[in-house]
Amino acid sequence: MRKIFNLALGIVTSIGGFVEVGSISTSVQAGAEFGFSLLWAVAAATLFLAALAEMAGRVAAVSRQSMAAAVRERFGFHFQIVPLSAELVIDTLLLTAELGGAAIAVKMLTGIDFEWWVLPVGVLGWLVLWFGNFSVIEDGIGLLGMVTLSFVVAAWRLHPDPGQVVRGFAPSVPHHDVTRYAFLTVSIVGATVSPYLLNFYSSGAIEEKWSQQDLWINRSTAWLGMGFGSTVAMGCLVTAAIVFGPQHLKVESYEQAAQMFVPVYGRWAVALFAVSLGIGCFGAAVEIALNAGYVLGQSLGWTWGIDRKRRDVSRFVTAFSVVLVLAVAIAALGFDPLRVTLISTALTVVIMPLVVLPFLVLVNDEEYVGRHTSGPFGNGILATLTILGALMAIVVIPLEVFGG
Amino acid sequence: MMDVARDVLDTRVVDRNGREMGRVDGILLDHQTGRPLRLSAIVIGPAALGDRLHPAVGRIVRRIEQRFGLDRNRPALIDFADVDSIDDKVRLRLTIGETAVDAVEQRLRAWVSRLPGAQ
Questions:
Q1: CB pairs under 8 A between A and B
Q2: What is residue B30's predicted lDDT score, i.e. its pLDDT?
Q3: How far is Cα A245 from Cα A30, in angstroms, rounded to an integer?
Q4: Which of chain A's ends, N or C, has fewer CB atoms near its CB within 10 Å?
Q5: How far apart are CA A378 and CA A279, in angstroms?
Q6: Of residues A273, A278, A281, A315, the one with CA closest to residue A95
Q7: What is the Cα–Cα distance from A65 to B56, expressed in whole angstroms?
């Protein structure tokens, strides 16, 4: 019974924790600029994420090693330093963007400039990490995140044409702005399949002491949790498509994005959008900072774990604190949160092969997964998609950034 | 025959009481003319990792450790004679306290412990 409860909680918190600054901004822009036609990208990215998360959980449950630890052991430090450095840089950028997103949400509620809120949001995040345990962080934030279902409710109440929505799940090439379309596709994949999510998921499996008996919980949480969670991102895209699409608006700020709630929620629109954005971003910020501690601790062989006494894991708590301070410092230099988000999510796709390909080797190594190896068919598809995605990102990011 | 790179380097190290000590960050080989190479010590510490990347990186890490007064006996060199067994972990006959492996953790602990909620 307890396992069923844990499974249900895991699925619910995956839904609540699915959207953050990256998925909200990419979905809003995709909906506003290309209608429903990028729904397929959200669906494909979600399948990709669920497959990888299931593998991360499987390696952790069988080998009792997180992703970062297993990669260090299997491939050595010489190899690991490259994905580790890339992931830390992108995580810091993404953390900056999440803090910015949460600060903008507070700005929408208070009217005071978002720059003033980055530091308080960072301090609040650190307090949650310092005083919370894994269950408070994972479940508490996930449950609060259920407010993001307001995106699904909004889409439902706007009565989208079912035929058009279904057509959105078939990949197509638009008649205009092909580069922008490709860039948004890459950004949607990057926002959905963040490397931090995978390592965080496998670290959670270790924190919750999963074993081989929990593989079915892992499978259900990964596929159902991520699957249902993606409906929030899809709700966001559909709402933006219906509200902004006819006006051919290019959404350039979160304040502008909040207007998509007006036809459904009236005078509560901005507040509800702000709360959804704020909780989504704050939860992701806490998880990204925590993951920086995980990934460093596991790679360098420190004692780690958010359920341990802080004095017993001093290097681990110092690591997540330093990364949080660094992100607040970058934010203090002044930045455009929406732009940082889009660039960091697109860059994520560039480094994806470094994260995914070694991982595919691990899930076929009996030393790490016993008899639960993956089949060559699924692996082949994942490897091909990863490399294609990275090549596409390398082409479209310069075009988007330098205005080609 | 043992494959040092695969079986020892980067493997987890635990002390006599099963306490985690980190990973094998480097190894020291003993070379005597006419004899095969012999593994003489395992090395634990970020400076050893730095050395593996480039000697200059190792020097930078050592300088940082010096600045914090952490250079004594670091990186920790553990004589191979003190290795009890090697399976999925390298198991030592020593306790962590008999080495300098924990110096950074202890230094940070002194600061971290002052904060409320750390105990």
A1: 60
A2: 86
A3: 10
A4: N
A5: 34
A6: A281
A7: 31
State the complex-level ipTM: 0.90
Distance CA A187, CA A190 (A): 5
- Which residues of A fall below an 8 Å CB-CB distance to B? 72-73, 76-78, 81, 130-131, 300-303, 309-312, 314-315, 317-318
Distance CA A23, CA A284 (A): 11
When the pLDDT of each residue in chain A is averaged and rounded to a whole number, the result is 90
Identity of the residue in A78, A131, A311 whose CB atom sits nearest the CB atom of B109: A311
Which residue, among A287, A274, A251, has the nearest Cα to A147 in the 3D structure?
A: A274
Contact at 8 Å (CB) between A215 and A72? Answer: no
Tell me how far CA of residue B17 lies from CA of A4, A133, B78, B92, in angstroms. Answer: 36, 27, 16, 9
Q: What is the pLDDT of residue B71?
A: 66
Taking CA–CA distances from A74, the nearest residue in chain B reads B6
A77 with B105: Cβ contact below 8 A:
no
Residue ranges of domains in chain B: 4-112
Q: What residues does B44 pair with on adjacent strands?
A: B76
Q: What is the pLDDT of residues A150-194, one digit of tens each?
A: 999 999 999 999 999 999 999 988 888 898 899 899 889 989 988
Q: What is the pLDDT of residue A240?
A: 97
* Interface mutation target, options B21, B52, B108, chain A, most CBs of A under 10 Å: B108
Amino acid occupying residue A232? V
A274 close to A109: Cβ distance less than 8 angstroms: yes
In sequence order, the 6+-apart residues with CB closer than 8 A to the CB of B69 are none
Q: What is the pLDDT of residues A79-136, one digit of tens each?
A: 999 999 999 999 999 999 999 999 999 999 999 998 899 999 999 999 999 999 998 8
DSSP calls for A129-179: HHH--HHIIIIIHHHHGGGGGHHHHHHHHT---HHHHHHTTS----SS-HH
CA A147 to mean position of chain CA atoms: 17
From chain B, the residues in CB contact with A72 under 8 A are 10, 23
Name residue B26's beta-bridge partners: B43
User: What pLDDT score does A403 carry?
Assistant: 65
**pLDDT > 90 fraction of chain A, expressed in percent and rounded:** 61
SS3 of B60-94: the string is: HHHHHHHHCCCCCCCCEEEEHHHEEEECCEEEECC
How many whole angstroms separate alpha carbon B15 and alpha carbon A310?
A: 22
Measure the CA–CA gap between A147 and A268, rounded to whole angstroms: 13
Helix, strand, coil shares of chain B, percent, nearest 5, are 35, 25, 40
Does a cis peptide bond (omega within 30 degrees of 0) precede residue A337?
Answer: no
CATH entry, B4-112, from 3.40.50.300, 3.50.50.60, 2.30.30.240, 3.40.390.10 = 2.30.30.240
Q: Which domains does chain A have, with CATH numbers?
A: 2-401 (1.20.1740.10)
Number of Cβ atoms within 10 Å of the Cβ of B30: 12
